[in-house]
Amino acid sequence: MNDLRLRPATESDLAALVRLRDGAARWMLTRGVTGQWRPGELGEDHFHRVMAHGEIWLAESGGLVAGAWELWWEDETAWGPQPPVAGYVHRLMVDRNTAAPGTGRSLLRAAEHRVAAVGRARVRLDCLAGNAQLNAYYRAAGYRVVGRTEGKPQPGGPPKAFTLLEKDLRQSGEGGDQGFPVVSGR
Asked: Which residues have a Cβ under 8 Å from the Cβ of 94 and sit 6 or more positions away?
C-alpha cells in the first residue's frame, strides 16, 4: 500500500472510471451480489457530471488505477435537504486485479480525511439495503446506521431502498494526515 497515490480525477480519466465501475459491477455479479451495480449502467457522462458538482478521487498503484470514489457535498436524493456539515461518499470502487487487499478501507479513510480537510464533521453514504455484506463492511469501518430511504431513483432501473450510514469524524478522531501521497488537491 505504500505506493498508493491519490489525485483528483480529470476529464482524461473518464474512460478509466467507466472501466473501473464496470469491473466492480462484474466482480459483484460473480459473487452473487445482484441488484446493486450492472456493467454498462454508467458512462462517461455520469462521471463528467459528478466532476462538475463534486469530486472524484482516483487511486493509483504502480502506475495503474487501483480504485476511486466520488465525493459529493450534498445528496438531497437520499438524505433530503441538510446543512453543510457532511461529505457524501458514493461509488467506492476497487480494481480487484490491481489493488492490494485493504485498498477499499484505505480509500474510505482517505475520503474521510478529505471531508475533514474542508471542515465538515461527518461522512455519509448510502448502501443498498439488501446488501448485508456491504452494510456490515461499512459498520465495521465505524459507520452507524441512521436511517433508510425508500424509492431512491437508479440509473436505468427501478428505484431501490438504501441504508443511510454516517460517521462522525469528531468522535472517530479522523481528520489528521491521511498517510497517502496526494499528487494534487482541489
From this structure: 24, 66, 67, 103, 104, 107
Lowest mean pLDDT among 27-41, 42-56, 61-75, 85-99: 27-41
Q: Which of 182, 185, 179, 9 is nearest to 93 (CA)?
A: 9
Cβ atoms of residues 15 and 44 within 8 Å: yes
Question: How confident is the model over 125-183, as pLDDT tens digits?
Answer: 999 898 888 999 999 999 999 999 887 766 666 777 889 999 999 986 655 444 444 44
- Pick left, alpha or beta for residue 138 (phi over 0 → left; psi -120 to 50 → alpha; otherwise beta): alpha
The one-letter amino acid at 96: R
Q: What's the distance, CA 90 to chain centroid?
A: 4
